[in-house]
Amino acid sequence: MKKRYGTTSFIIKFTSFSLILATAAIILGGMVIPASSSGVDCAPVKIIVDAGHGGLDGGAVADDGTVEKDLNLSLAHSLKNALIAIGADVIMTRSDDVMLADDDSPHKKRDDLNARAKLARESGDCIFVSIHMNKFPVSKYSGLQVYYSPKNEQSKAIADALQAAARQYIDPANARVPKKAGEEIYLMQNVTCPAVLVECGFLSNPEELERLKDAAYREKLALIIAATLMEYASVADARE
Ligand SMILES: [Zn+2]
Q1: Count of Cβ atoms closer than 10 Å to residue 230 Cβ
Q2: Rounded to the nearest whole angstrom, what is the distance from the C-alpha of residue 17 to the centroid of ligand 1?
């Protein structure tokens, strides 16, 4: 049986992706539209925003010293703000530069991932989106890449929507297609809600690294992810 996102019927008046993006553009321009005036009058969509890595776990490091965890957190905060502005409930797995594990644990990384997965499992109907940055030994590769959890059938549709939106609004040359998360992506194997992991770009590609370091670019990415998730949620709800 299909999972719902809210406990009651979720209705959002933003039925057009372009309208959501227009709203997002207004938000980006500094005119934040409160949820109460956005037409959302029922149980909101709940979205868990997961900033990858944190604390002792920096994730990938670019040649210039840029650390993945910092870009992830910045983008996650932008995503949270955009989602709240267009009517979602947002839970952050981390809001600061921390690892979700005890300092004296011998298995900090596994504990950290388990804590994130546990939060998702205990949050009821929700969509889980994990934010990461990619890195590869060869610098020529670039482009946003979405992975989806094989544990919930809705994950792929969300990944498809995000990958398509990235192609349409960020990089028309990005021919990547969503990939099913393998065993190596532990978090995607241990959540049950619709879940995706967005590798927002390659820190190993000099041009993409410069874009990812640009706060305005991260804001744009966040808005596109937010609008796409909300569009998906509204369409999925309308089908039920
Ligand atoms: Zn990562």
Answers
A1: 27
A2: 28
